[in-house]
Design goal:
The protein is elongated and about 35 Å long. It has a single domain, classed as OB fold (Dihydrolipoamide Acetyltransferase, E2P). It starts with a strand and ends with a strand. It is mainly β. A hairpin with a 2-residue loop joins β4 and β5. The strands form two sheets. It has a four-stranded antiparallel β-sheet with strand order 1-8-6-3, with no helix packed on it. It is built from no helices and eight strands.
Length: 73
């Protein structure tokens, strides 16, 4: 099994988390939404698998390239 890190593409904040630890995700599924400069940026699963960790919660500030969650595939 491989673990994939899902990272932030922008500096911003977590607006909404739509998946929880243990949820199955398909490639392209929306996991959470970030907010940056009044824009909503979807964070999608790059691979299919199981969400093993969600490392942020709504209103957390995030940096570019920060790991947001882990997917085991």
């Amino acid at each position: 099994m491989a673990t994939t890190e899902v990272t932030s593409e922008v500096i911003g904040s977590v607006w909404k988390v739509e998946k929880a630890k243990g949820d199955a995700v398909a490639e392209g599924d929306q996991i959470m939404i970030l907010e940056s400069m009044k824009m909503e940026i979807p964070v999608e699963a790059p691979v299919a698998g199981t969400l093993t960790e969600v490392l942020v919660v709504p209103e957390d500030s995030v940096e570019e390239d920060q790991v947001l969650c882990l997917i085991e595939s």
